[in-house]
Amino acid sequence: MQTGILSRSSAWMLRWAPAVALFAWAGAGWAQDLLITNVHRVDPAAERISKGLLLIEDGTIVGPVAAAPKEFAGTVVDAEGRYAIPGLVDTHVHSFGNMAPDGKMEMLFTPGSAKRALYAGVVAFLDLFGMEQVILGIRDGQRAGKGYPGASIFASGPCLTATKGHCSEYGIPTRIIDTPADARKQVGELAAKNPDVVKIVYDHEDYDGHSMPSIDLPTLEAAIATAREHDLATVVHIGHWQDVREATLAGATAVTHTPRGPMPADLPALMVEKGTMIIPTLAVQSELADLIADPTPLDGPLAQAVTGEHIRTPFRSRENFSERTERWLVWQKGMRAEILRSVGKLADAGVVVLAGTDAGNVGVIQGWSLHRELEKLVEAGLTPWHALRAASVDAGTLLGAKWGLTAGDRGDVILLDASPIDDIRNTRKIHLVIQGGKVVDREALLVP
Ligand SMILES: [Zn+2]
User: Fold this and answer.
1) Which pTM was predicted?
2) Residue 70 CB neighbours (<10 A)
């Protein structure tokens, strides 16, 4: 049965309401009341900047208020000259850590990546494939208040793919679905572990001279239908535009990545009609080439704080690149203009675009790259308002949580030193991060 996006997301809201309330509290330690004064409130839902007070009570945004509550006993933050935006959400990461272009690794593991992300103003991320037991265990621990300070962790757990399909090449065990019966069995078993979304690979793209085996259409349809029976959202990794079309028709909640080649003209309207969102991941598809062409963004204080020099330097030296990385570079250069154009058209047509980086891959850095993704979304033609929505309000519709600056939204707020509407790159000028109504000790997050 096909249902529209509204009925689906409201079903998740109901399902997630108790869990959201619990981990909003747990993730923030002791939630408290916080009053931000003299602040420019940058509200992406209303596309309006207003100046005044912003009140957070019990970890939840009360909204702009005209005056401080009588005998206010909470924390007061004077934000004169500063800009409040919602906490940012990255809807596509692999939170093991970072990989340099020369293959060097920065193993942070999920708890470490959650800390770096929060330092960078990323208050939540969606991990779309890791070690199932480990990542779902850490997520559950965080929601139960058993430590793990940092960004709120959302996770798919495994990646559902064909035998020898994409995701099977990393040596990490995952769930294999070669038939509709496999799909029903595996999604049913996985549902018992409450993944935040079900990640499925449906990819017929020929990359690097070969294409990996993909599940067939009946298997995709069975996986999506079974996920729906369990009220689970689906994120489908796609290759071709035809994969996007078939995933859309099969009822995927979201597709991720942006295909090369011209986008079929009728596809955006079909995605709008079916309520299928897209996580384009412009960062993973262009950032290696972009940072090699101009590595100066890596000199910024935020990039330097959240990642090691051994990850940043190879973008400059370009030594010891594997042949595969060199080919990846050529591949990125060849499609950059086209994928940006397609994302601009999708956004114009009203397809819901979500900000996701695919951090963990070469060229992409946990936490920091979300700011680059926002910059690329604006380059693709989204307004800064729209880009901010992609990383807050709209991300919430996929994850069944509320981010924004309106009453009832999670008390996750970033104070910036300059307006992101004047220049989206100003999201990197972070003065303060607030999570669940509590001012985050950012420096403590950098202690290994
Ligand atoms: Zn990925």
Assistant:
1) 0.93
2) 5
